[in-house]
Design goal:
There is one protein chain. The chain has 13 helices and 11 strands. The protein is α/β, with parallel strands linked by helices and about 425 residues long. It has 2 domains: about 5-185 and about 310-405, 3-Layer(aba) Sandwich (Rossmann fold); about 185-300, no CATH class. A 9-stranded mixed β-sheet has the order 1-2-3-5-4-6-9-10-11, with helices on both faces. A hairpin with a 5-residue loop joins strand 2 (about 45-55) and strand 3. Helix 6 runs antiparallel to helix 8 and helix 7 (about 230-240) packs across helix 8 (about 250-265). The longest helix has 19 residues, at about 120-140. The termini are close together. The relative contact order is 0.13.
Length: about 425
């Protein structure tokens, strides 16, 4: 059972989050109305596109095909983006990337989120606010699906719980699709990057350099540091050869890279990406959002752990169908995070609302169009007709769509995901039994 200390702590957390991850909602009436905008070239069907800025300052894009099937897909994007003000280019890029959705007849809407940096609940709120803007301007869709990709998978998972009920009725979303999801919450999902910083520094001794000010690595980059991403890339290249052709790496560089990758259990070629997150994302997460308190490692700050869990970890209390897909060789978000999400729904008694699928992909940011088409149509059939898919039925549907979308299906219907603890060190959060 949860300890008395943890119960008291969560009472403190609920209050303190109001000034951290949870933001006060301004009246929706203050929203800028969507204005007509040119659709990107990637949208190949007749469609109307709109852009705008919500009351919290988040930019957004909307696309509605003229032959609309009256199903809206709300998109939660990945990242998180570098800390700072929101950028309109973020949602513009997302619409281009996800043009498949309006091309299939669905309306699509995506928010930039109100700021860069970490904040899962914040991003969930921004996504829901955009849905309300859509309904106010264009009317209530027949169905609303919520799709989260990467970090956005965690955002969508949290949104599905926050908005599971509204005034005692089922919430605004009819089904949820999570692809390449960073699931399980920030403590569990990011612990390995804290371990990576330690392993990298023990071997390379250049982040920070010996002559630079030393600091606890879990804090991310010090606020007054002048280190640039280009300089970090140079240091990583110097120590490990990442960024150089394999044949040009020295024996020492190869050995260093192998040792670091083995310690953190990552794809060696993804080292720089993970170090970037453990440098600049941790700077925002720890220093700006958690007040400098440590959520990682063998001796974390209990309040920091609880705050991060409250903001981002799923509790499994959903009441609509959830379909997930994950590449088994995802270089960014370990596939084993799916086991954490499944455990959350199992404990909440909602395992019947979850179907998980896996692909033989080696990518994180985007599968191929055929696979997404199979996933979203399978989810809609589940929502509309109660036809619960299986990993095998999704794979079969995908195979039937290959000629239409001109890409091969790589689903692995027999794949069984392992527990995350068999892939990475897992810090037990201060919640649950």
């Amino acid at each position: 059972m949860r300890s008395h200390y943890a119960r008291v702590l969560f009472g403190v957390v609920t209050f303190s989050l109001s000034s951290l991850f949870w933001a006060t909602e301004p009246a929706l009436a203050a929203a800028d109305l969507p204005f007509a905008s040119a659709c990107p070239a990637e949208i190949t069907v007749p469609a109307d596109c709109y852009a705008g800025k919500d009351p919290q300052g988040a930019f957004y894009q909307i696309a509605i095909p003229r032959d609309w099937n009256h199903v809206l897909v709300m998109h939660a994007h990945g990242g998180p983006a570098q800390a700072g003000p929101p950028k309109a280019s973020r949602s513009e890029e997302d619409l281009r990337r996800w043009a498949l959705i309006p091309n299939m007849g669905f309306a699509w809407a995506g928010s930039s989120y109100r700021r860069g940096g970490y904040g899962v609940t914040m991003a969930a709120q921004d996504t829901e606010r955009l849905r309300q803007i859509f309904v106010d301007r264009f009317g209530q869709p027949r169905r609303t699906l919520l799709h989260g990709q990467s970090y956005g998978g965690g955002v969508a998972a949290k949104a599905a719980e926050i908005y599971a009920t509204v005034d005692g009725q089922r919430g605004p979303y009819d089904g949820v699709l999570l692809t390449s999801g960073v699931l399980g919450g920030g403590v569990i999902a990011y612990q390995f990057r804290a371990d990576l910083r330690t392993a990298y520094q023990q071997i390379c001794h250049n982040h920070p350099l010996p002559e630079e000010p030393q600091y606890p690595l879990w804090t991310g980059l010090p606020a007054n540091s002048s280190l640039t991403r280009a300089e970090l890339a140079r240091r990583v290249r110097e120590c490990t050869g990442v960024g150089m052709p394999t044949q040009d790496r020295s024996d020492r560089q190869k050995a260093n890279l192998a040792a670091i990758a083995s310690a953190a259990r990552i794809n060696p070629e993804a080292l720089l990406d993970h170090l970037n997150w453990a440098t600049w994302l941790f700077q925002d997460l720890v220093q700006a959002q958690l007040g400098g308190r440590n959520p990682f490692g063998p001796r974390p700050d209990a309040l920091a752990v609880a705050q991060l869990e409250q903001d981002s970890a799923p509790d499994g209390h959903v009441n609509v169908p959830v379909l997930t897909a994950h590449a088994i060789d995802d270089p960014t978000a370990f596939v084993e995070l799916e086991s954490v999400y499944k455990t959350a729904l199992d404990k909440a008694g909602n395992s019947d609302l979850l179907v998980q699928t896996f692909t033989d992909e080696h990518v994180h940011s985007y599968f191929n169009d055929t696979e997404y088409a199979a996933l979203i149509t399978s989810l809609l059939d589940w929502v509309d007709h109660g036809i619960k898919p299986t990993a095998r039925s999704v794979a079969a549907r995908c195979a039937g769509l290959e000629s239409r979308f001109a890409s091969n299906c790589l689903f692995l219907p027999d794949y069984q995901v392992l527990p995350l603890a068999e892939r990475a060190a897992v810090q037990k959060p201060l919640r649950g039994d």
